[in-house]
Amino acid sequence: MKEEIIIAGFGGQGVLSMGKILAYSGLMEDKEVTWMPSYGPEQRGGTANVTVILSDERISSPILNSYDSVIVLNQQSLDRFESKVKPGGVLIYDSYGIHTPPTRTDIKIYKVDATEASFEMKNAKSFNMIVLGAYLKVRPVVTIENVLKGLKKSLPERHWNLIPMNEEALKKGMSLVVDV
Amino acid sequence: MKEEVKLMKGNEALAMAAIRYGADGYFGYPITPQSEVLEKLEAEMPWDTTGMVVLQAESEVAAINMVYGGACCGKAVMTSTSSPGFSLMQEGVSFMAASEVPALLVNVMRGGPGLGTIHPSQADYFQATKGGGHGDYHMIVLAPSSVQEMTDFVALGWDLAFKYRCLSMILTDGLIGQLMEKVVLPEQRPRRTEEQIRQQCPWAVTGAKGRKNNIITSLELDDDKMEANNNRFQATYREIEKNEKRCELVNCDDADYLIVAFGSQARITMKTMELAREQGIKVGLVRPITLWPFPDEHLRQAAKNVKGILVEELDAGQMIEDVKLAVDCKVPVEHYGRLGGNVPTPDEVLDALKQKFNIVSK
Amino acid sequence: MEINDIIKPENLVYKKPKLLNERNMHYCPGCSHGVVHKLVAQVIEEMGAEEYAIGVSPVGCAVFAYNYIDIDWVEAAHGRATAMATAIKRLQPGKLVFTYQGDGDFAAIGTCESIHACNRGESIAIIFINNAIYGMTGGQMAPTTLLGQKTSTCPYGRRADLNGYPLAITPLLAQLDGTRYVTRQAVHTAAAVRKAKAAIRKAFENSMEGKGTSVVEIVSTCNTGWKMSPEKANDWMVENMFKKYPLGDLKNVDAEK
Fold this sequence. Notes:
The structure holds 3 protein chains of 3 kinds. A 7-stranded mixed beta sheet of chain A has the order 2-3-1-4-5-6-7, sandwiched between helices. Chain A is 36% helix and 25% strand. Chain A is globular, with a radius of gyration of 15 Å. Chain A contains 6 helices and 7 strands. Chain B is of the alpha/beta class. In chain B, helix 4 packs parallel to helix 5 (83-99). Chain B is globular, with a radius of gyration of 21 Å. The mean pLDDT of chain B is 97. Chain C has 11 helices and 9 strands. Chain C has one domain: 3-Layer(aba) Sandwich (Rossmann fold), CATH 3.40.50.970. The model of chain C has no long low-confidence stretch (mean pLDDT 96). The B-C interface holds B 24-25, 27, 53, 55, 57-59, 61-63, 65-70, 72-73, 75, 77, 91-92, 95, 99, 194, 205-210, 212-219 and C 50-54, 56-57, 63, 66-67, 70-77, 80, 83-88, 90-92, 95, 112-113, 116.
């Protein structure tokens, strides 16, 4: 098993922490994992992004040119990374503020109204967990149980009270994701 | 503390490895992209657990001279910095080499020259492997290509430094420093006692108790004595060259082409190798782990039957000189590298390989 | 009474400290370094600190201090003695750690390290020899060279507009919270030598007691660099140096209490 993922959006959308939670979840399943924040050329252009790789074997490059799964959270990132999905791969996007939706036909495209859902939940911080839920519904590379375990591992103990809210957001994302 | 599996940034893992090694002291000055080392150490408060001293110095110049002072005490001391900071440290590096004291130095390279960029670079290869400071000296230079190696090379670096009474350097870049990976942190080792230090480092300044007084100096105005000192340093370096060359060879047995890359770039080009082999191009990877001493013999063996060698490094062509020397220019050697903080993608390196050697994929 | 009747152990009134070895010093006749070296050796001996004293020698005339006093020594890069001493003391808190530095070392190239070590309150003792000139390299201008004073790099006399003003660094250090004891002494008379010795003793005791940084500035002569006889140099020092660098304690936290 090997999954190469990039998550891209604006700074402040929780892109890096979403990647971190995913990486921790992989660690809980005893997988090899890498988490590489936007660094070098990818940082240009006002977006924050992170490459996460989960694999049963030793991972070579933590920096890639094409991905099994691309998760984009704004138009800029969509424009930039639509072409980077491997043929047959997955593209997930949050519809909020998207005026030019993706058009490729050789990949599987999913939409999740995560921004709106986070407004409904009255918790902007649940946004990235909704997106993560949507992704895991489409690509169940790690179990929800292990995501929650990973979350516990990555959060300081004083924040463990937030875990039920995160679980709710994950499930919300799973229910909201739609095939387009 | 037992062995532990963690998900950590390279810089943080390095800090944890220092504590777990039983380090006595860290002296450093903040600079991007390695400030997490000092931050992690301050957050861990090892002075309360192992008794390790952690001090934010007023400059890199002060930091390296604190390391020098600590090294003279026979203590396991270290610093970490990034390129401009390491330039400032060169004075202390040369003095320590001349004084034959052991220490661990870490350079998380960024793009230069000058203030340059905070993004990855390998352009300090010459500075690390061929001097930097004045005089004839060498440091053992270790190039980690994973967070695990950022951890493991801390212990290796110190062990080698104490074995040869020389400097060890971990030469890495922001890519490995900022990368998070699964890492196994070693079991906590106890710090050495004063009695152990007196036995292991009889040359150290621990107070002249029960022995003749020790003097550690890099100064010797008698030319013949200074020549003898230099000859002794060189003899140590020859010994290190004999024993400590390290290299990883991947898929070199059937390779038509070799890529030589170290540190972060060995990770990128490992993927290039996978992509090339998917296209039927038999590529092998030579990853020097010690940059000094350079693993020339490993490379010579691997290069016996190849048509060409691509040296991929984040600089304008530095390690390529050592590669050419190693293969005696008997094999065509080409260079590919991005500059200014840019990092190539694996595909980009594959394109360069094909173009430089006119390879048509099947 | 014959001379041999006088030279007897029971008549001994003064002797060289044991720590001061038999090597001939490289210092010029008349130089203050010899006296200060003797005081350092005496104080260490009187404290019984031979087995736990660690000195840091500078770059300057005193670079070879390690050749004369038989304790453990390290020799620092130019100006970096207090940085080295910082680590030595922090890593071996039970040791007596002191630096021995000249004006160029301590107050020019090493100013940054000097100020910050004092400001952190490192429990080290600093012996700072201020003779207003670079002796070792052949008489160039020092940060402490007086206005009008001639050196090989201000051959017509130091001018404020060209060379800036002489730097009195110890009053500056006295203002820092980290310093415990800052004093300015000299060794030109027997009385001054006794006072300087007491100051060094206090500084060394402060190091052992972990009380913070002590700075003992010794206003000194460099008769060779100043191109004077030793005697004239002492007079010139009293007349000119003491005006800019008056003797006495600049800070003594223990006395203030």
